[in-house]
Specification:
Blueprint lengths: L14 H10 L2 E4 L9 E7 L3 E2 L6 E2 L7 E12 L2 E12 L5 E8 L2 E4 L9 E2 L2 E6 L6 E2 L3 H5 L1 H8 L7 E2 L14 H12 L11 E4 L4 E4 H22 L5 E4 L12 E2 L5 E3 L6 H10 L4 E5 L3 H11 L7 E4 H4 L6 H10 L10 E5 L2 H11 L2 E5 L18 E3 L5 H17 L19
Parallel strand pairs: 1-10, 2-14, 6-12, 15-18, 15-20, 18-19, 20-21, 21-22
Antiparallel strand pairs: 1-13, 2-5, 3-4, 5-6, 6-7, 7-8, 9-10, 10-11, 16-17
């Protein structure tokens, strides 16, 4: 059965409960360059052991414990997700003195004790350490430093794993989340990658935050997630369409077998081409075939390999009555997706032919990507119109390139004066001749 926090909510905290929670609120030590801080706390006071109302975890009562204050701590972000909810449980005796502390880390509950077995206190206050970017709690910095390698990867290269965190507690909020939403969050976080510090010199007092009941925090989160996501979608442009050529882009032209009428009846895909198309589809990219040839040939090849299932439209020269670089081919692709030509700069064309794919895209302001994979076709531009914006050498390079282009789009959106290439791609923009 799926976890349902709403069915486990105990009595609402009284004003005196909230006052006590604020009075005893722990301090959190963050890394010096932590980019994300919590903004709200949901409080529950438990008078018996049982399931947490805000997490799929069991809260225990050891001998002498009379009540537990649960702090459900909300962040809009961690470095790999849109939003973060971590927990601290203060265990109190009959006189409301703290006699134990538990806290959450990566979906599990752990007792918080110092190396000598004592409570983790600083100046009489419970003080816990938060992992950089990830926010899991520890009683000291030592376990965090021991995880330095993994945390550094999480805050740098592994930000590409970011997404909207799907949680059963907020299923109504996530009903309309799309692959594009996940991708926008991923790009937002990739642009906020950082090298974490491990000195934990920043002390954050949880008592300074708004303390409300867990049901009120739950309601706030249900409103807040769509707000944050809407802001991300406004701030982070995404590529609106990926236009793909076929020959020597998806299909190895050297392997083509034709019938007596000149139609291709069989051909091999380039290694990695199917995996690339599948990866783009998972990421929510809208894909259109823009290719020169006969309708029957592409039905035989791409349909036979199952590639056509991923296209929202197929713009084929035989049906259009013209070949690339004719503007009609590219404009038909945009029109098929309902994309205005003024948004051409937020679409890409990927192909093997400088004089057709690259030239045609450049003349309409579409981002041109040359796949320099095969020995066929000319390799040196005849004029400036044939210089590609980017060059790749195999289909498998395309998803990473598109991610870096979108990251650059996000940076320029926040700073329109910025003129930059995607990170690490300046060398690819230099044409190999």
């Amino acid at each position: 059965m799926a976890y349902d926090a709403r069915s486990a909510v105990p009595a609402l905290p009284t004003p005196s409960d909230l006052a006590l929670a604020r009075q005893l609120a722990p301090r959190i030590r963050f890394a010096r360059n932590e980019p994300f801080y919590p903004s709200k706390v949901g409080v529950t006071v438990l008078d018996a052991p049982g399931q947490s109302p805000s997490a799929p975890l069991a809260v225990t009562f050891e001998p002498g414990v009379k009540k537990v204050i649960e702090y459900a701590i909300w962040w809009d972000w961690d470095i790999q997700h849109l939003y973060e909810l971590e927990h601290i449980w203060l265990k109190l005796d009959a006189s409301d003195a703290v006699v134990g502390v538990d806290a959450s880390a990566h979906g599990k509950l752990y007792p918080m004790v110092s190396a000598d077995g004592a409570l983790p206190l600083e100046e009489g206050r419970v003080t816990l350490y938060s992992e950089p970017g990830k926010h899991a709690f520890h009683a000291s910095a030592d376990p965090i430093v021991e995880r330095r390698q993994w945390l550094t990867a999480s805050c740098t290269s592994m930000t590409s794993a970011g997404h909207v965190l799907i949680n059963a507690m907020f299923e109504d909020v996530f009903a309309t989340i799309t692959a594009q939403d996940h991708r926008a969050v991923r790009r937002y976080l990739q642009n906020r990658a950082f090298m974490p510090a491990f000195d934990f010199s920043t002390a954050f007092d949880l008592s300074t935050l708004d303390h409300i009941s867990w049901p009120d925090l739950h309601a706030f989160i249900c409103q807040r997630v769509p707000e944050v996501l809407a802001q991300v979608r406004a701030d982070q442009p995404l590529i609106k369409a990926v236009l793909l050529d076929s020959g020597d882009t998806l299909v190895d032209e050297a392997s083509e077998i034709r019938d007596s009428d000149g139609h291709v009846i069989e051909a091999d895909l380039i290694p990695g081409a199917m995996e690339m198309v599948e990866a783009l589809a998972r990421e929510g990219y809208r894909i259109v075939l823009v290719a020169d040839g006969s309708v029957k040939s592409f039905a035989n090849i791409l349909g036979g390999h199952g590639v056509s299932a991923y296209f929202e439209a197929e713009i084929i020269s035989e049906a259009q009555g013209c070949e690339k670089p004719a503007a009609k081919m590219f404009l038909a692709a945009l029109a098929a997706l309902g994309i205005d030509p003024t948004d051409a700069a937020e679409t890409v064309m990927v192909g093997n032919h400088l004089g057709r794919d690259v030239k045609g895209a450049n003349e309409l302001g579409i981002i041109s990507i040359w796949q320099n994979w095969s020995p066929r076709r000319h390799k040196t531009p005849f004029d400036a119109s044939e210089f590609p914006a980017y060059t790749i050498f195999a289909p498998g390079e395309l998803p990473t390139l598109l991610a870096e282009i979108e990251c650059a789009m996000g940076r320029r959106s926040r700073n329109p004066a910025m003129v930059d290439l995607p990170m690490g791609l300046a060398d690819r923009a230099v044409l190999e001749v």
